[in-house]
Amino acid sequence: MEIGDLSEYSFNLPEESIAKVPAVNRDGSRLLVLSSTDGVLKEEPFFTEILKYLKEGDVLVANSTRVARRRVFLRTLSGRRHEALFLDPSERRNEWKALVRNSKKLKPGTVLQDEMSGRFQFTVTGREEEITLLATPPDFREIDFETIGRIPIPPYFKRESSEEDSVRYQTVYAKTLGSVAAPTAGLHFTPELLEQVRRLGVEFVELELRVGYGTFSTLTAKQFREKKLHEEFFSISSEVAETLNLAKKQGRRIISVGTTTLRALEASFDSGTRSFLSGESSTRLFLQPGDPILSCDCLITNFHLPESSLLLLVCAFAGKDAVLNAYRYALRNGFRFYSYGDAMLLLNRL
Fold this sequence. Notes:
- By secondary structure, the chain is an alpha+beta fold.
- It has eight helices and 19 strands.
- The chain has helices at residues 145-148, 163-168, 191-199, 221-226, 238-250, 259-268, 309-318, 320-332, and strands at 31-35, 40-44, 59-63, 65-67, 71-76, 81-89, 95-100, 111-114, 121-127, 131-136, 176-179, 203-209, 232-236, 254-257, 269-270, 275-276, 279-283, 298-302, 343-347.
- The protein has a nine-stranded mixed β-sheet. Strands 5-6-7-10-9-8 form a six-stranded antiparallel β-barrel. The chain has a two-stranded parallel sheet with strand order 4-11.
């Protein structure tokens, strides 16, 4: 199906509509509920009201990835300072791909040292779209970013990260390090709210998708045309796949907490056997209006960037016209947008 021009997914977003700090309470954000079966919108004052829309037998699926402190300040041996965002390990041991500010003077062979501890050095070994850095000593690991780096908050916050971000830009169920951005729909849940969810007879299960920097990147015409996005690693355990497959078989609702979770669910769902496959894999899946979404029945999400892959995914899930109408309503009624913003619940099945 033809989805039109990317500009059709644009909208004017006033600066004051962008949430740059979290709500006082995690579950204190507002909630906009969209029933895609009839296009009806309902506004709820607090996210906790989501309990009204859940029922016994539902399966709530969340992304338990943890945001790593991969924003690191480095200095050359001559003292020049560079800010680096470490992306993914390269194919060679102990090498990392990184986005580095003011990188024109960084030639292969340049040595940089981490500013915070001074314990680690990074040697430039390659230059393409990103800089490739070889870490020393050779036992450098992901966990070491926790001692030398900061939380890489989204660029549209237009501020420095704080200690509050170290807590609030993580879900309460975050576990495995590896992401450079949070699965933000999950930021609204508290331990107390999750306990109430379980008391309703709703199962809560977790998968892992390591969110990459591409989630913030502007879509290119080539990506839009070829329907290929940045690659992201995901993992689904055999126990979770079994739970999801049983829910499918019994006709119970599967509810995705966030677009990153939905991307993993769709990538792992075999439409032929109508079942979820367990294991580790990666995906470049780019869901757009017209693409069938078969893995789940409902979606919890935040309000996304104009012309973004995440907005197109939400439009694929609930319908372009219905979603864009909901966004216009949200803007008129003062909803907060983006990572620290308010939430939406999209119901494809009541």
